[in-house]
Amino acid sequence: MNNVRRSHPTDTDRFPDGSIGPYVDAFKRDLGQRRYAAKTVATYLRCIMHFARWTHFGHPTR
Asked: For the chain, how are helix, strand and coil distributed in percent, rounded to 5?
């Protein structure tokens, strides 16, 4: 089986100006000080970006 992992390029340095934005730099710095792998940091930042978009644009209601 050929497993291909696809990811969408994201600019993790650009976050919405909402309530999450001011905390991202401190979070990145903390992960770096704790010696997290760069790939892990990037994954966490993409998760934060996804959450920030979700809170900014809303989510579908059921």
From this structure: 55, 0, 45
Q: Where are the domains of the chain?
A: 21-57
Q: Give the number of other CB atoms < 10 A from CB of residue 41.
A: 17
Give yes or no for a contact between 13 and 22, defined as CB atoms under 8 angstroms apart: no
For 37, the token pair is 């792998």
Q: Which pTM value belongs to this model?
A: 0.64
Instruction: Quote the tokens at residue 49.
Output: 């970006």
CA proximity to 41, closest of 60, 13, 61, 16: 13
CB 18 within 8 A of CB 55: yes
Tens digits of pLDDT across the chain (62 residues): 444 444 444 455 565 556 777 788 899 999 999 999 999 999 999 999 888 888 878 766 65
